[in-house]
């Protein structure tokens, strides 16, 4: 898993060959003496994953992005796919690190044809941080993926599966970002979903997450299978309002797929009841294991007896069955109550697929309800990927315990909003059309886009009520109208003080984030 404060980078990456040297032995040939303390037996679910996890973390060890050890791990995974019986190849890429140096890394891609040519992606990263052997993070995820691939090889699977081992996750999700950047629009549209596996071995609770709305079908399938198989796998319950029940943070390889509009599922073991309730504190006993020297099979086995076996077995059984039972839901709106606002359905569906807009526990969006200033700022922060849980702000009516505090703090930190000028933000007041226009214009300016109208007078002249537009908002309304990010209202008016509905906010936000 990538740290919350790690800036995710999507950079143009040039293809380059990786020089992979050295012979990689089969895991079974070197682990006989290491596996004696574990209870899993050959042939039981999780046994092959355990051997593979031990080999990656103990024999290869620390696998820093771009290092020789990371390259050896990639070559090992390539060979394992071949032994399983899958055709696999390297997808090399370059990126520039924080010191300006060019770094070589690679993804490993294996394909298993199914009855349908539509594609289900399954991914896990294989690099680690420098202070860790990366047993939990993320030899465990790669190993479960490999065992599930082996388990379904000769089965009648419904969809074609692409198994992806990502390089360079720990330095900003580089491998998965690169993979998605190389997908064509046809490939993205042909995707069923992406299942991500990250840090499965040690967290107190085994979880599966997914999108909100109907795009959460991957999570729901996993939960149903876990119940049928009597696996102790649940989802997080929404104790932290920043992360609604069943969803998760944007800090692993599902993120690039999610923002390409591909539904995701995510398997992880952690403890959402601890620390900041964001899933980063994994265990009551140790807090975090990932990104520490404790992330070894020896430490985890000694301090959490039986946990590795239970987790690898459970996640292997779950993922295997999910690959066999995956079923794309029938096409339909993301929420059950938006068909009456047909003009907004496409925008709402698109934003919901990326968890930019969220529904309630009954899968309703409430499209005609007024959206508050805090709610719109939260949508904006999620859409721009700006949420920083450590950001602070000083408004008398925005307190650290409020669900919207980090959203408002993040947006203010980026100078997209300033409050009311009197030390307040009025978070629970409905946002007006002119206020929303100002926020949108601020986004254009901060992101270096056209933020000034070529002819403000002409842009505003079409509105009969232009004199009602507040002075501070006139330039914003002009450019937002000129770029057609917002449209006028009936009767050739702009209605600047009119409160905005959730459906209207979704359409404007979609126009802003994804201009035609």
From TrEMBL:
- Cross-referenced PROSITE patterns, in alphabetical order? SLH (PS51272)
Q: Which residues form the SLH domain?
A: 331-389, 391-454, 460-516
**Where would one find the signal peptide in this protein?**
1-32
Which UniProt keywords are listed? Aminopeptidase, Hydrolase, Metal-binding, Protease, Signal, Zinc
Which protein are we looking at? SLH domain-containing protein
The organism named in the record is: Paenibacillus glycanilyticus
Instruction: Identify the taxonomic lineage of the organism of origin.
Output: Bacteria, Bacillati, Bacillota, Bacilli, Bacillales
């Amino acid at each position: 898993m990538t740290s919350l404060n790690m800036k995710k980078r999507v950079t143009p990456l040039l293809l380059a060959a990786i020089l992979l040297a050295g012979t990689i032995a089969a895991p079974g040939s070197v682990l006989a003496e290491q596996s004696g303390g574990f209870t899993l037996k050959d042939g039981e679910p999780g046994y092959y994953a355990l051997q593979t996890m031990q080999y990656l973390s103990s024999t290869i060890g620390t696998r820093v992005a771009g290092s020789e050890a990371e390259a050896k791990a990639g070559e090992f995974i390539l060979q394992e796919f071949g032994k399983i019986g899958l055709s696999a190849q390297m997808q090399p890429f370059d990126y520039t690190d924080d010191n300006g140096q060019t770094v070589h890394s690679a993804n490993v891609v294996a394909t298993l044809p199914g009855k349908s040519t539509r594609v289900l992606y399954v991914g896990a990263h294989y690099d680690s941080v420098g202070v860790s052997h990366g047993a939990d993070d993320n030899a465990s995820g790669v190993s479960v993926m490999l065992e599930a691939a082996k388990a379904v090889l000769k089965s009648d699977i419904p969809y074609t599966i692409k198994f992806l081992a990502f390089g360079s996750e720990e330095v900003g999700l580089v491998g998965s970002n690169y993979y998605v950047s190389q997908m064509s629009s046809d490939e993205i549209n042909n995707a069923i979903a992406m299942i991500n596996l990250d840090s499965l071995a040690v967290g107190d609770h085994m979880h599966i997450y997914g999108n909100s709305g109907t795009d959460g079908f991957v999570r729901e399938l996993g939960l149903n299978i876990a119940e049928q198989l009597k696996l102790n796998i649940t989802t997080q319950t929404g104790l932290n309002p920043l992360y609604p029940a069943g969803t998760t943070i944007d800090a692993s390889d599902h993120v690039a797929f999610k923002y390409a509009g591909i539904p995701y599922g995510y398997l992880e073991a952690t403890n959402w009841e601890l620390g900041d309730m964001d899933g980063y504190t994994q265990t009551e006993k140790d807090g975090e294991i990932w990104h520490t020297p404790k992330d070894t099979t020896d430490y985890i086995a000694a301090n959490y007896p039986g946990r590795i076996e239970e987790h690898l077995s459970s996640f292997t059984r779950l993922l295997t069955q999910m690959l066999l039972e995956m079923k794309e839901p029938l096409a339909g709106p993301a929420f059950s109550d938006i068909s009456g606002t047909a003009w907004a359905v496409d925008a709402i569906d698109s934003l919901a697929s990326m968890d930019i807009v969220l529904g309630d526990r009954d899968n309703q969006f409430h499209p005609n309800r007024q959206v508050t200033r805090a709610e719109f700022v939260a949508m904006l922060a999620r859409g721009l990927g700006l949420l920083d849980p450590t950001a602070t702000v000083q408004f008398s009516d925005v307190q650290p315990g409020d669900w919207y505090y980090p959203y408002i703090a993040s947006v203010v930190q980026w100078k997209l909003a300033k409050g009311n000028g009197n030390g307040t933000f009025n978070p629970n007041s409905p946002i007006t059309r002119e206020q929303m226009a100002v926020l949108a214009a601020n986004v254009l300016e901060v992101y270096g886009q056209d933020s000034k109208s070529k002819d403000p007078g002409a842009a505003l002249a079409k509105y009969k009520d232009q004199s009602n537009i507040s002075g501070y908002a006139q330039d914003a309304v002009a450019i937002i109208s000129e770029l057609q990010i917002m449209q006028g209202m009936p009767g050739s008016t702009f209605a600047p003080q009119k409160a905005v509905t959730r459906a209207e906010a979704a359409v404007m936000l979609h126009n802003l984030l994804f201009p035609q």
